[in-house]
Amino acid sequence: MSLSESYICRKKFKYMKLPTLPIEWKEEYNVNISFIDEHHQKFVLILNKILEIKNHDFCGEKVSEIFFSLVHYAEHYLIREEIYFKEYPNFQHHQKLHNEFIERITRLQQDYNKGEVNVCVEMANYLYNWFENHILKYDKEAVNYLKEKGH
Predict the structure, then answer these.
(1) Digit-coded pLDDT (tens) for 66-100
(2) Whole-angstrom Cα distance, residue 141 to residue 47?
(3) Is the pTM of this model over 0.70?
(4) Can you give the residue range of the structural domain that contains 53?
């Protein structure tokens, strides 16, 4: 990708202000359910990787590792979380968000395989949004509800 393509790519797909590296895990992010906290911390490591490669313009060289990590995250964690959240009243919506996450990652991987130049920027924005809105809000809300109900 040339410098001008990189600039266009960043300008066109800049959805939100992304953080500087690295995102450090904070105690306030914990929900105090060990498997959830552990996987959320692993997600932050994945997010930090995509932010790093996006910032250094070597997306094409490293993005396959990110896709592999995201598939592992989806296959091993999201399903386990859904089992834990079964009694949550908004469970179906939560599960729908997980399915949309998987579909979005699949589309990004297809775009990458087609040679799309904006995949890293788009993925970084999407994953950061997932962290901010799903992990730090929806998941915390679900865990708090279940804890209140004695789960």
Answers:
(1) 999 999 999 899 999 999 999 999 999 999 999 99
(2) 22
(3) yes
(4) 41-148
